[in-house]
Specification:
Strand content: under 5%
Structural class: mainly alpha
Radius of gyration: 15 Å
Shape: elongated
Helix content: over 70%
Oligomer: single chain
Number of domains: 1
Length: 61
Amino acid sequence: MITDLHRGAAFLLYQTTLLFGILAMPIALFARRLGLTLPVRSLIESAERTYERADGHRGHR
C-alpha cells in the first residue's frame, strides 16, 4: 500500500511538473530573448526519473 501511495505521489508530481512546464513556456521564451534560461527541462527530467523509479518497484511487492 505504501508503494502504491509512493507511486501515485510520484505520478502526481510528474504530471504537475509537466503542467508547470507547459504553462511556463511563454515565460521561458521571453526569458530566452533576454539571454536567460529557466531550468524547466531539468525539473521535468528529474520528476520523470522519480516516477520511473517508483513505477519500476511495482513488480517488487
